[in-house]
């Protein structure tokens, strides 16, 4: 503390010797020792306000005002709080060099308080990040039972919680409390499983605590300290403190300060009770007469030979803050507001002993050890998140930093290898075969369309509702081509496209077949005397029915994609040595509703065609529709168990096969007989032949005339 007083004296001498900062103004000073006691601090504040005789003064004449313009101090936060409340009433500014409690930053309570040390709020956040950086998630804390310790520790605990750090215990102690309290705190530390301890404490409280912990059994701890004690070399004598880390106030150099400290003679020391006491205790002699048990100082004493904190200027930390506080007041007097915008700055301090940096790395402070490969964390009930059990991952999963994930690598005897990713790729032999059939089917549909368009005026084309026939051929072309979307590496767009395209095109196809079947039945009914049924299912109604049936499927697909769309999925359950990359259905309900709607229309079409199969005609289309629907239903009924049981890429192949088989069944059964007559039996492509013994054709032709 003496060096702080001397730093203030040195700064004032510099300021008074300047001709620029305060020209024509001489600063004086009074120095009081509060002994870090609240009552003494309040007494000093009253003396400052009332102008009572100083303990140590210079350049103070009786003509000056009794009150002081500003105060530097106190060192501790609690006395500073008491002083700030008192001095604030008189508007006397107070600049502290080491009162770091964040609470003092509240200008509504302490409007006249300033400081040259950063707030502990910054230090608390930095300490929490340091603990997290070293991976210490299970710690203990101890603090001074004071404003400094309580407020600082509260800030640290909040920051630690945000960093995911768990605290096993948080103890408090103040040096004036009974020794039993100190023993209790020490025993908590000894019994704890946390090997890292954060101490937000003053030098005096740390001194008592370390003395108690040094008694056997002395625990092996990793200390994390604050700026108040982490730079104190006296604590290096405790082995348990080896490797302590923390943040300290940046050390600095004050030019000329060392020479000022050493320029002290016995005559100068006699002028001040504080310096006199320092001189006599340092040299074990008496400056004024022979004291009991002490020799008289003879003038041979040389302060330069001393090795103590007073003469050691290698780490000027708090002394520099006193120096800055004094200059801040001088600038304020001069009318210049201190405008230092620098952020809080600390030095990172690590205590070392001999040549060993003793960070506890061989025994990390953890509530639970890290989970071994192949397991995941499961938080223990009623305990902090840092305390957990390790549970094996499910089959097909491996562990990473966050938990269990799908396994994407496999192991051989000496290394890790990536698993083979399997899907129905474009260069796969099976995929090539399916592509050939798909393109062939689409080509057939286009060829049939060309033949029908070229002979669109022929009886066989007109008799089979040419408009629905062309729409059916268009939908069949799409059915063949949509199977190509199932080939290749699954992606988000391909997974959503393949099922929706398949569902909508097949409904369009079956709707056309259903329309043709209804036309056959309506045509038979139209030939009965007095029947006008065809006006209720003419071409406009046929188009509307196809549109309505298809629109329903489109709505189902849109809902499916919005609620739970199909997306790429890595399946690791079927095989241990490879990953199946496939499209997850997303909503299984959506998929089976799409299939169920197609099946419903197909069954309805089959029933109607079956009812119309015996109608008289040399070319009764209902027979071919019945047979095509029989094939369609058979294919998709067998598809369901095959689809469910097929592993890997064969699941996709089964679905493509079902699409192609049902499409080929429709185009062959419905259009092959007509094309055969058009190309190879043109003599049968006449009205007379198609009408046969009855009236079917006339009714069909009449329906087209009505359009």
TrEMBL record:
Gene3D superfamilies: 3.40.50.2300, GPCR, family 3, nine cysteines domain
Domain GPCR family 3 nine cysteines, chain residue ranges per copy: 365-404
Cell compartments where the protein resides: Cell membrane
Membrane topology, as annotated: Multi-pass membrane protein
Cross-referenced Pfam families: 7tm_3, ANF_receptor, NCD3G
GO CC annotations on file: plasma membrane
Domain of life: Eukaryota
Alphabetical list of SUPFAM superfamilies matching this protein: Periplasmic binding protein-like I (SSF53822)
Transmembrane domains' residue ranges: 430-453, 468-488, 500-524, 544-563, 589-612, 624-644, 656-680
Main location: membrane
Record-annotated G-protein coupled receptors family 3 profile domain positions: 424-674
One example GO MF annotation: G protein-coupled receptor activity
GO biological process: sensory perception of taste
UniProt keyword Translocase, yes or no: no
Domain Receptor ligand binding region: 6-337
UniProt keyword list: Cell membrane, G-protein coupled receptor, Glycoprotein, Membrane, Receptor, Signal, Transducer, Transmembrane, Transmembrane helix
Family listed: Belongs to the G-protein coupled receptor 3 family. TAS1R subfamily.
Protein name per its UniProtKB record: G-protein coupled receptors family 3 profile domain-containing protein
Organism: Electrophorus electricus (Electric eel)
């Amino acid at each position: 503390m003496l060096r702080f007083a001397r730093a203030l004296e040195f700064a004032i001498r510099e300021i008074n010797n300047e001709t620029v900062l305060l020209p024509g103004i001489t600063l004086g000073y009074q120095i009081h020792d509060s002994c870090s006691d609240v009552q003494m601090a309040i007494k000093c504040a009253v003396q400052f306000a009332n102008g009572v005789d100083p303990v140590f003064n210079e350049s103070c004449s009786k003509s000056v005002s009794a009150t002081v313009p500003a105060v530097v101090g106190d060192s501790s936060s609690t006395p500073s709080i008491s002083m700030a409340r008192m001095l604030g009433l008189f508007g006397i500014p107070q600049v502290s060099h080491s009162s770091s409690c964040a609470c003092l930053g509240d200008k509504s309570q302490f409007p006249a308080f300033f400081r040259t040390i950063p707030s502990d709020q910054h230090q608390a956040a930095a300490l929490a990040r340091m603990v997290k950086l070293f991976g210490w998630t299970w710690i203990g804390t101890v603090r001074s039972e004071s404003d400094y310790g309580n407020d600082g520790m509260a800030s640290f605990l909040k920051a630690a919680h945000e960093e995911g750090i768990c605290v096993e215990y948080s103890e408090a102690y103040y040096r004036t409390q009974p020794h039993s309290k100190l023993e209790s705190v020490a025993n908590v530390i000894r019994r704890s499983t946390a090997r890292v301890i954060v101490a937000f404490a003053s030098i005096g409280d740390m001194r008592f605590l370390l003395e108690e912990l040094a008694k056997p059994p002395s625990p092996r701890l990793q200390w994390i300290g604050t700026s108040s004690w982490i730079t104190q070399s006296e604590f290096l004598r405790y082995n348990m403190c080896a490797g302590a880390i923390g943040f300290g106030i940046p050390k600095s150099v004050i030019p000329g300060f060392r020479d000022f400290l050493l320029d002290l003679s016995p005559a100068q020391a006699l002028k001040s009770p504080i310096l006199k006491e320092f001189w006599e205790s340092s040299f074990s002699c008496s400056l004024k007469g022979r004291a009991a048990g002490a020799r008289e100082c003879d003038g041979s004493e040389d302060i330069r030979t001393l090795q103590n904190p007073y003469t050691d200027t290698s780490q000027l930390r708090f002394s520099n803050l006193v120096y800055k506080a004094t200059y801040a007041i001088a600038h304020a007097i001069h009318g210049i507001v201190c405008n230092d915008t620098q952020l809080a700055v600390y030095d990172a301090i690590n205590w070392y002993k001999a040549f060993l940096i003793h960070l506890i790395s061989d025994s990390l402070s953890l509530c639970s050890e890290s989970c071994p490969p192949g397991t995941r964390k499961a938080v223990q009930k009623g305990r902090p998140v840092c305390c957990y059990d390790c549970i094996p991952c499910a089959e097909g999963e491996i562990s990473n930093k966050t938990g269990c994930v799908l396994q994407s690598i496999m192991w051989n005897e000496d290394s890790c290898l990536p698993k083979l990713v399997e899907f129905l790729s474009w260069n796969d032999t099976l995929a090539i075969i399916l592509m050939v059939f798909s393109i062939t089917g689409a080509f057939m549909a286009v060829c049939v369309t060309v033949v029908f368009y070229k002979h669109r005026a022929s009886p066989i084309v007109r008799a089979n509702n040419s408009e629905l026939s062309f729409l059916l051929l268009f939908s069949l072309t799409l059915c063949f081509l949509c199977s190509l979307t199932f080939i290749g590496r699954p992606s988000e767009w391909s997974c959503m496209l393949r099922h929706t395209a398949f569902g909508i095109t097949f409904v369009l196809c079956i709707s056309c077949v259903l329309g043709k079947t209804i036309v056959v039945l309506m045509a038979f009914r139209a030939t009965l005397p007095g029947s006008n049924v065809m006006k209720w299912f003419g071409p406009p109604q046929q188009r509307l029915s196809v549109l309505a049936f298809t629109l329903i499927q489109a709505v189902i697909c849109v809902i499916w994609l919005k609620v739970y769309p199909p997306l790429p999925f890595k399946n690791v359950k079927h095989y241990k040595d490879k990953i199946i990359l496939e499209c997850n259905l997303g909503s299984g309900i959506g998929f089976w509703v799409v299939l169920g709607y197609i099946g419903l229309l197909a069954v309805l079409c089959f029933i109607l065609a079956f009812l119309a199969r015996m109608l008289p005609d040399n070319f009764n289309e209902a027979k071919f529709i019945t047979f095509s629907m029989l094939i369609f239903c058979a294919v998709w009924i067998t598809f369901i168990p095959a689809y469910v049981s097929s592993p890997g890429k064969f699941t996709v192949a089964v679905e493509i096969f079902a699409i192609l088989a049902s499409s080929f069944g429709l185009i062959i059964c419905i259009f092959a007989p007509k094309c055969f007559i058009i190309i190879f039996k043109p003599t049968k492509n006449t009205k007379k032949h198609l009408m046969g013994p009855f009236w079917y054709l006339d009714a069909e032709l009449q329906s087209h005339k009505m359009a």
